[in-house]
Amino acid sequence: MTEPLLRVRDLKTYFVTEHGSGTARAVDGVSFDLYPGETLGLVGESGCGKTVTSLSVLRLIPEPPGHIRPGSFIEFAGRNLLTLPPRELRAIRGNQIAMIFQEPMTSLNPVFTVGDQIAEAAIVHQRLSRRAARARAIEMLKLVGIPDPAQRVDHYPHQMSGGMRQRVMIAMALVCHPKVLIADEPTTALDVTIQAQILELLERLQAELGMAVMLITHDLGVVAGSADRVVVMYAGQVVEQAPTPDLFARPLHPYTDGLLASVPRLDAPPARARGRLHAIPGQVPAASDWPGGCRFHPRCPYAWDRCRDEEPPLLDASTGEPGIHSVRCWLLTEPQRRTARPVP
Amino acid sequence: MTSSATALVDVQGLVKHFPGERGYFGMGRPRAAVRAVDDVSFAIMSGQTLGLVGESGCGKSTVGRSILRLIEPDAGRVVIDGLNVLTLGGRELRALRRRMQIVFQDPYGSLNPRLTVRQTLAEPLAIHRLATGADAERRIAALLQEVGLDPGFARSYAHELSGGQRQRVGIARALSVEPQFLVLDEPVSALDVSVQAQVLNLLADLQQRRRLTYLFIAHDLAVVKHVADHVAVMYLGKIVERAPAAALYAAPRHPYTASLLSAVPVPDPKAQRPRIVLTGEVPSPAHPPAGCPFHPRCPHPKKDGRCRTEPPALREVAPGQLAACHYAEEPL
Question: What value of ipTM does the predicted structure carry?
Fold first, then answer.
């Protein structure tokens, strides 16, 4: 395999809780690699730490209340982003690593035209003149499929629909041709027909520009259609990671398995379409109070003593190339305990 | 599924137009009215679920609220269990409200933050004079148990609950007056997948146990497939297709339904489905296109001048399946 573009090791991002008394371990020892040109899906439910992970990569965590613990390591192009002086970090942020957010409504500045906002990064990072930057903004609007780009460049965000605004966000992020695009729930606020347009646009731009995409989402359908590899997060940790086809064919962590089984599916056979859904009992615990042992054990149908007492490490479950499929679950050491999905 | 003897809910020709806003701080000329709901008809059999689907702004929530008269519709007829909802006055309407309730999407915005769960559930019991005092306490405990919450939650405030727990309280509140008919307006779209499954299972159990009739409003076609007996698809204030769920999902006849279905991501990387990606966006309901409202985005190969000028009627194109498309019989 080629060298990773981005290497995240033992990332720990903690927050002081509201009352100042506790610590929320939002991201607690996360490691993964991002390879050039690939799409990596980062999946999990609210509160699992996927957004905090992505914000930590760009050091966008507000301090206080948050802080990235010493010992965490995020390597990009041979350098640790976490120890980079602010000036050098700014040269990377928005230039080589760019980000798009979930809310196209609140992530754009309402008092500047979309053209100004797209041009800003080109002026700052590439030292383009205002005129050249405006031409670049029009070119970008055209690239992301906005009709009449020469007129639209002078419009304000409120004059555009949600789908259009998300296209503007993408144009802003891509104006410097970044090597890495972090997309945090880029289609969650959009209708399904617009979501399909945006996903197709991202796919096309990725192929044209050859960038790596870190796609953060709660939607397993989006991951199945777009990602090459998937990292599943639960309670601030990576619980499973695998190539997409592997993960869907052979989900090994009971959480991944449960999550997949709880999605109502359009492709369900008619006989199953109206049956009961598999539900994971209980709810995600609070980040200030992760359960001891395996963090999933209170909700896990297989849990036994060892799961309550001892936290499992990420274990290799690959059938082919070592290390490509790993799972944080003791079942791997005692596979005979795994039966057909038990009723919780 | 027109007004037959067993339809609990019968809606005919429902219309709701919102007046256009005035520009210049209310002194300018009013803009064009928004035709949020434009001649919508359907019926729901007792004990069944009708899924009402469409994208934001299509008018599906306005339909749900107009039926309950939380919004006053401009025209149409709504009959629930033989009573004409739109002509009832104060006292009778209040009596009828006991039999029809709503569960809202946002479990954060729909509970009063200053009330405990007990107070939230006691209010409808008091208003409809169903129970007070110790009797009310007993019913509240039973309700909480029925929606899968420990009766100890009665003392909690909304902010102490998770999204899923709040939605259960919202459901308990709707059930407290023992309705026959529930409007469920995006009841699970704010919830995480694992919690969504819990709430969908709960709604299915309650429907069976209490013989409830549901109008299930949602944008998620996979969720609707899981719960609905019949499905109606809305676009720009109109129903463009209405059919038994099995027929609609197996063979959609309106090109909009087909496009919507093909756009839903399926959690299976091996699924190679032809994807119809619609161009453009939903036009403003204040200025719907002439002819078929869907024609500017329609991918149908037969699309022609007729689609641009002549609005298609909602007509039966297969047994029990209605579609508003001139070319519904032609392959897409």
Answer: 0.83
